[in-house]
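Lesson 9: reading folded outputs for more than one chain in a single document. The general rule is that every protein is listed as its sequence immediately followed by its structure tokens, and records are never interleaved. Here is the first one.
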Amino acid sequence: AATAGSLNVSRSASGTVKSSRDSNVAAQASGAVGRVLAQVGNRVTAGQAVVVLDDTTLRDAVNGARLQLQNAQINLQQGSRNTGQNSGQLQASVASAQANLSKAQQQQAANRDLYGLGGISRSDLIASQAALAQAQSELAQARNALSQNGQGGALSLPLLQNQVAQARASLSQAQSNLSRATIRAPFAGVIAALPVGVGEYVQTGSTAFRLVDTSALSVDFGVSPAEAAGLPTGTPLNILYGDQKLTGRVKEGDRVAGTDRLVPISVRLDGAPGSAGRLPVGAAVQVRYTLKLGGGTGLKVPVSAIQQTGGSNVVFVNVGGVARQTAVNIVAESGDSAVVSGLREGDTVISPVPPSLADGAPVTTASAGAQP
């Protein structure tokens, strides 16, 4: 009887061990390699120094920038001090000139009264007028000097302050460049490659070392689109590498076939981080899995019931004691069973097929072990 069901087919494929975090750590500064603090295969922690460039030039740049900042700060302090001192002296000169002018004004007023009374001569009066004019001129000069000093300070102090800010920024940049001379691990992992050695010159952006997080391994392999449909997320698989036998489950993926017409499948290894043993990233492994073929798309019959006639696949169905030839399409095949379409569930197919059987021939069904 043709029955609903699927075929379990064992498959194997070649996979590659990969890590979700696999980074080529680049140098952020140029220079000769001064020290290498780890070797290939060493495990490092996040932030651990791995490669250190010769920082002699960078340290000199930091010291030079620090001196420039100190000089700028000294110039600003001196400028502020000089401006304050000059301002005090000039303000004192203005106060003195104002006092002299007040005295000259009083003397002039007194001499004018005395001259009216005939107490002094005209030449004395003229002399007091000249002294008043001189006091007025000295006050004007003192005020002008104070004003110019204030304007000069207002212009020079901001300039000196800008020089301090620029020197401080230069020092910060030099210190940042110095910190980049030490190339550190961005995350915990194992050094997978170390293409640089002591004395070699590296450029900014070139690879200093390759770091792999072995606690987040997966296995990637490719299958045909038809088989990909039988490997939904969560499907269990077996991973073989040497004498290691691991298990895993299919991860979520976009299931888009690549240029090789294969759909990429990624497997998350079971167990706690690190339970994958010493699977090296990039190693070839064997992936074994079971596919269920034909489920829901056909009925299962013996392969021996299927014959080819005129380029088509046919089976003989016992319909009321008469053999009726029926065309079928093979959906899946494995071993001695096949899943076909074109039949109805419960149809009785004839298997094995006698060589002389023809469409419309009468048939009888024998029980198991009986002679037909």
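And here is the second record, again sequence then tokens.
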Amino acid sequence: MKIDNAGCFHSLYDPLGKTKVNAEDSVSINQRIASVGNTGGSTNSHLHYKVRKVKRYLNPQKWCYCLFEIITTKNK
């Protein structure tokens, strides 16, 4: 699943189990979009998370921290 974010950022998630949103849906920052899935020879559910700006992949750890800060600020 690919989510288009503001500023030409894209979040990519794979593999997913059950998807809870449809293409073209708007989603909020804390909305559950899917459940994690399982692929091929893996022995447990897992998630591959990628962040891309245009065609360049970014470090998702920094992106996650940024999102954490946004959510924390919204909840104050």
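What the second record shows: The chain has a mean pLDDT of 86.
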